[in-house]
């Protein structure tokens, strides 16, 4: 988060929590809201609408939860802090640094604060029996609001900062909701505290213990937990709702001998205070030489050619002592680096791998040990290096007949100029796979793929190389393939026998295989195989034209018509009809 502006991100969570009314999971009730200056002035009680464009305590001006809280404190006479209060999640920490009281007891005039579920602050307008009235502003939703939240609800504040509390709530701000909806405050329930940890540690280790707080009636305990050694508090932590009553605590190093550890839960308004039984921890001197665990970690299991990932080697002695001396790192059995461990590095070093060829590789590490830590090896880790590919495609013919399969030539290559010897090439028509072919070493990256007969029209052809073990996938753009549709040309004569002084008429019809009339293209009229006339189809003709034949000699004549085709329609010729001419 930025120093100021990302407080608005926090208010995003607040807005999500306040878009509903009172429910079992979110017990709150919105009293009023406002976005514009006039709406804020109507809803707010502090005069913030007139000053919201100004920065208070160096917070971002306008709709902002921290700027609104700062204004309320400024108006109450609280001097501007000498340190920057920062994001809402940091207010309780910075308030403690300034000497202000922070606890879980609400008071009118205090600042309610959340830092786990959401980074947010609000002003406590009223403390009632089992409820609070809060007011706040939000950076993300650009909304000021005042609302009621019930004690123990999911949106109940995590803590309260007491900059300058008000002695009593304003009389005008009594509970604005009907009395039957306000539950009576629940009495504090009993709790039980247990602490567990190692039975034996060394003086060089910082032991970890687990403190568990169980509350009656299913209440989730929240509050301060103090871990004591010999009756003296050595560590204090905050038990939050997300911990679900269990928190791990790392203690300071301890002196030799028997140490007695206990934990105290200081209680809250909902849960009573309790102390755990004492456990015994025996502290001994560390062994002169101990074993260590060495591990090597890569950021991923696969990398692209040309990248140089960083491997992290961690050496962890069994008792937590500091490790020194060298660590050797090997890739495919060859040592690539030998960084030295120092106390400052705390058992961890990083090594950048060299550029590697495509294929399977292994990495391992050896810690060479010291006078106090034994030598150890990391388990070898396998990883892969892959290279990008390119695929080019061309069509054997840009246009094919309706029953003619098209052919696509695909070539797959790499930046090294070495073609992949495995994988599969897919051919797609209009985005759907229609054919495929495998790559082999003999293919040298080029395959010719025959397509099935495709539907008539302009098809968008593209090619994909699906990749292989050590080559990535790649794809081409689209190539247009014209698939023609078959045509049907029909004829009929006005009469099959005529006098030599008369002229017969030939009716010609042209349509597609789908019986769609053809509205363009030329038709040649043939008599005895010789062209005697040419007509052009138009939209007005609707696929049908009538041609008057010339006068013919006495005898029998073979009459036919031939459609020359178009880009989308194949040529076709009609059946031959016989015309008899008499004297």
Give an overview in words.
The strands form 9 sheets. This protein has a 7-stranded antiparallel β-sheet with strand order 1-6-5-4-3-7-2, sandwiched between helices. Strands 18, 20, 21, 22, 24, 25 and 26 form a 7-stranded mixed β-sheet that branches. 7% of the residues lie in helices and 43% in strands. It contains 5 helices and 44 strands. The termini are far apart. It is mainly beta. It has 5 domains: 175 residues, endopeptidase domain like (from Nostoc punctiforme) (endopeptidase fold (from Nostoc punctiforme), Alpha-Beta Complex); 94 residues, Immunoglobulins (Immunoglobulin-like, Sandwich); 88 residues, Macroglobulin (MG2) domain (Immunoglobulin-like, Sandwich), CATH 2.60.40.1930; 95 residues, Immunoglobulin-like (Sandwich); 96 residues, Immunoglobulin-like. A hairpin with an 8-residue loop joins strand 24 and strand 25. InterPro entries: Big_3_5, CHAP_dom, Ig-like_fold, Papain-like_cys_pep_sf.
Report the average pLDDT across residues: 88
Q: Decide which structural class fits the backbone.
A: mainly beta
What is the general shape? Answer: elongated
The number of helical elements comes to 5
């Amino acid at each position: 988060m930025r120093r100021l502006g990302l407080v608005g991100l926090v208010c995003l969570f607040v807005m999500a929590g306040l878009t509903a009314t009172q429910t079992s999971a979110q017990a709150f009730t919105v009293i009023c809201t406002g976005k514009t200056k006039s709406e804020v002035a109507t809803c707010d009680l502090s005069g913030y609408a007139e000053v919201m464009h100004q920065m208070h305590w160096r917070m971002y001006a306008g709709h902002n939860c921290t700027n609104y809280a700062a204004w309320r404190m400024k108006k109450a006479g609280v001097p501007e802090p000498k340190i920057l209060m920062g994001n809402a999640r940091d207010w309780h920490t910075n308030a403690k640094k300034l000497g202000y009281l922070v606890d879980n007891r609400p008071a009118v005039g205090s600042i309610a604060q959340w830092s786990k579920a959401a980074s947010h602050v609000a002003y406590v307008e009223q403390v009632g029996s089992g409820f609070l009235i809060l007011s706040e502003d939000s950076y993300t939703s650009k909304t000021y609001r005042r609302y009621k939240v019930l004690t123990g609800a999911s949106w109940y504040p995590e803590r309260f900062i007491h900059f300058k509390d008000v002695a009593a709530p304003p009389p005008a701000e009594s509970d604005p909701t009907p009395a039957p909806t306000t539950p009576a405050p629940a009495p504090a329930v009993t709790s039980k505290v247990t602490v567990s940890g190692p039975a034996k540690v060394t003086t060089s280790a910082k032991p970890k213990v687990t403190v568990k707080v169980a509350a009656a009636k299913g209440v989730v305990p929240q509050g301060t937990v103090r871990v004591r050694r010999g009756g003296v508090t050595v560590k204090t932590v905050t038990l939050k709702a997300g911990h679900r009553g269990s928190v791990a605590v790392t203690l300071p190093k301890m002196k030799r001998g028997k140490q007695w550890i206990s934990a105290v839960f200081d209680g809250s308004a909902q849960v009573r205070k309790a102390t755990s039984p004492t456990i015994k921890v025996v502290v001994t001197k560390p062994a002169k030489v101990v074993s260590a665990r060495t591990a090597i970690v890569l950021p991923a299991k696969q990398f692209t050619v040309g990248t140089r990932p960083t491997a992290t080697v961690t050496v962890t002695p069994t008792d937590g002592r500091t490790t020194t001396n060298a660590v050797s790192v090997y890739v495919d059995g060859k040592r690539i680096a030998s960084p030295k461990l120092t106390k400052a590095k705390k058992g961890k070093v990083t090594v950048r791998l060299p550029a590697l060829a495509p294929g399977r590789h292994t990495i391992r590490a050896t810690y060479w040990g010291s006078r106090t830590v034994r030598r150890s090896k990391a388990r070898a880790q396998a990883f892969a290096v892959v290279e990008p590919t390119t695929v080019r495609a061309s069509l054997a013919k840009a246009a094919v007949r309706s029953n003619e399969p098209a052919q696509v030539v695909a070539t797959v290559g790499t930046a090294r100029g070495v073609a992949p010897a495995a994988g599969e090439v897919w051919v797609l028509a209009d985005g759907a796979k229609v054919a495929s072919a495998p790559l082999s070493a003999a293919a040298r990256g080029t395959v010719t793929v025959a397509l099935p007969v495709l539907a008539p029209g302009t098809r968008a052809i593209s090619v994909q190389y699906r990749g292989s073990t050590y080559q990535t996938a790649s794809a081409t753009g689209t190539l247009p393939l014209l698939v023609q549709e078959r045509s049907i040309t029909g004829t009929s004569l006005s009469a099959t026998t005529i006098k030599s002084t008369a002229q017969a008429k030939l009716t010609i019809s042209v349509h597609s295989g789908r019986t769609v009339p053809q509205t363009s293209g030329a038709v040649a009229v043939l008599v005895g195989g010789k062209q005697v006339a040419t007509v052009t189809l138009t939209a007005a003709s609707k696929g049908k034209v009538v041609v008057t034949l010339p006068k013919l000699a006495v005898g029998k004549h073979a009459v036919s018509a031939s459609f020359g085709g178009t880009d989308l329609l194949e040529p076709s010729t009609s059946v031959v009809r016989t015309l008899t001419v008499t004297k």
